[in-house]
Specification:
- This protein is an all-alpha fold.
- The protein is built from 1 helix and no strands.
- The longest helix has 12 residues.
């Protein structure tokens, strides 16, 4: 179960990866990017 009630699509995950590879993410240090829509493991 996720907080968004669904799993991320491949497109959504790819957008996260593209952002992290871009210059826009150059100031991010020590960040944890949760690309699993906050999946909760029971």
């Amino acid at each position: 179960m996720t907080l968004l009630k669904r799993m991320p699509t491949l497109s959504e995950t790819a957008k996260t990866v593209c952002f992290l590879a871009s210059d826009y993410a150059s100031n991010l240090t020590g960040m944890i990017i949760n690309a699993s829509c906050s999946e909760v493991m029971d």
